[in-house]
Amino acid sequence: MSRINVMQPYLGDEEIAAVAAAITSGWVAQGPRVAEFETSFAAKQEAGYAVAVSSCTSALHLALIAAGVGNGDDVVLPSFSFIATANAAVYVGARPVFADVDIATGNVTAATIEAALTPATRAVIVVDQGGVPVDLDPIRALCDPREIVVVEDAACGSGSTYKGRPVGAGAEVAAWSFHPRKIITTGEGGMITTSREEWATRVRRLREHAMSLSAADRHANTLAAAEQYLEVGYNFRMTDLQAAVGVVQLGRLDELVARRREIAAGYAKAIDEIPGLRIVADPEWGTTNYQSCWVEVTEEYPHDRDGLLVALAEADISARRGIMAAHREPAYAGRDTGDASLSVTEYLTDHTLILPVFHQMSESEQSRVIDVLRQT
């Protein structure tokens, strides 16, 4: 038997041709293909502006800077997320304050956020965890009157929907990931989308050292004007090689999501007949792309979560533990991160795992996974 990976990117001849064309053009750094990717992504996500960057982490970092978050501020966010969500707050000198999540979706809610708010809260980061859309409207209703900026961490959200629109369409600012574990990939890379032109303008500058004149504008002129550096900026640029892949991948998005939902439906049908397992599902307000197809292992199941992971590994199937709890990691264990209860976060971290889902997954491969779930 061959190994079944938890995820593998879907890349082909079109992506190869796009990269080759970029190389042949002689423009491989941030340039026209990055601009094309930004325009196409903004249109796909129904966002006002899109700015390509080096990663979703850098997108979150710049989003908080644009929102005016800094020293002495608190940022409420889930511990139930990849550690980069919390790190972004630390990068700008703010205190990450952890909020709990909903047991069904793994997402923060207006209620869990309200329980974690402090007088110093300047921003809230909400996460579309595993591709499950966060219920944004009640959170905006809570935060907007308090002048608290809501940043949507849509790292996993490409192709998910919220109330009939793409995830992120209603966000003031959102951050996206194109890591190979995500639905569409550029190898590494990220994007900021925002409804605010002034924020888009500023993060465009900040991503390339806060230069007053972009690299593309300088290269367009034989005798370029001398640039100025308007503030301390960063090297958070995306290359045209990455963007060339991104443009092709974006064109595949609907196909990729449809296939992942088809695979998840196959798991759901089987798991519905297995006592002690619960698979994540669409919430009433939207649809998930199943970027992570996670399953809760309850006490009814014959083995605990770790036992099931071992059984899958013995069958040469690579599953993964569920989403981490950042507050348990050494980087945050000794920090003051608020005092909200994180009982659901800890339960889900200890009782969930992520099943293999990828575009090329065959029926026989999925059957192998399901057989282990049934027989364990």
Task: Write the topology of this structure.
Layout: H1 13-25, H2 32-44, E1 49-53, H3 56-66, E2 74-78, H4 84-91, E3 95-99, H5 110-116, E4 121-127, H6 136-143, E5 149-153, E6 161-162, E7 165-166, E8 173-177, E9 190-194, H7 197-206, H8 215-219, H9 240-271, E10 277-279, E11 286-287, E12 293-297, H10 305-314, E13 320-321, H11 330-333, H12 343-351, E14 352-355, H13 363-375
Parallel strand pairs: 2-3, 2-4, 4-5, 5-8
Antiparallel strand pairs: 1-9, 6-7, 6-11, 8-9, 10-12, 12-14, 13-14
Helix pairs in contact: 1-9, 2-9, 3-4, 3-7, 5-6, 9-13
Structural notes for this entry:
The protein is 38% helix and 15% strand. It has 376 residues and is an alpha/beta fold. The chain folds into two domains: 239 residues, Aspartate Aminotransferase, domain 2 (3-Layer(aba) Sandwich), CATH 3.40.640; 123 residues, Aspartate Aminotransferase, domain 1. Strand 4, helix 6 and strand 5 form a beta-alpha-beta unit. Helix 9 crosses helix 13. The chain starts with 12 loop residues before the first helix and ends with a helix. InterPro entries: DegT/StrS_aminotransferase (IPR000653), PyrdxlP-dep_Trfase (IPR015424), PyrdxlP-dep_Trfase_major (IPR015421), PyrdxlP-dep_Trfase_small (IPR015422). Its cofactor is pyridoxal 5'-phosphate.
